[in-house]
Amino acid sequence: MNFGDESRGASPVVSTAVNPAIAMQLLSAMLGAQAHPIDRLAAHCAGSRGMEWSGEIFGQHPELPTTLDGWIARKSVAKAAIIERDLHAGDPRALGAFLVYVSAIAGALAFHGQWITSGSPAEIRRGLPLLGPFLEPTWSNIFARAVERLTQMDSEQK
Fold it and tell me: What is 23-59 written as a DSSP string?
C-alpha cells in the first residue's frame, strides 16, 4: 500500500481540515433531543441543500425592512409562525420561520444597532456567526454586520 511518497522518507499527507457543514450536522445528530433550535437551524443550513433552502425562505420575504419597526414586524410575524415542538423536532417549516425570526434580529442589529428580542441572548449571539457562513451572500453579510455590531456594543458597555 502506498499512501504517498514514503519511499523517499516523506510522511504521508493527512488532511485535518473539517468541513463546517458536516461538523454542524454531526453536532446536531450527536445532541439529538438536547440540540438547541439554533443548532438544528445551523445544521439544516449547513446541509447539502442548505443555501438553496435558505434562499427559498428569504425569497418568500424578499424586501428588506428599512426601519427598525419593519424588522420588529418581520420578527413578530415569524415568531407567530413558529410551533415550538416542531422547531425542536427540526421540522423544515418551523426552521424556516425561525430563520426569518433570527434574520430579523440580525437585521435590526446590523442596520440599527438595536436588540429586538427577549429571547436567549446567548443563543442568538452564538447563532449569528454560526449561521452566517451558510447563507447566501446578502444575508451572510447582514449576519456578519450584526456580529460586528454586537462586539461593538459589548465593548461600549465595558
Answer: HHHHHHHHHGGG--HHHHHHHHHHSTTHHHHHHHHHH
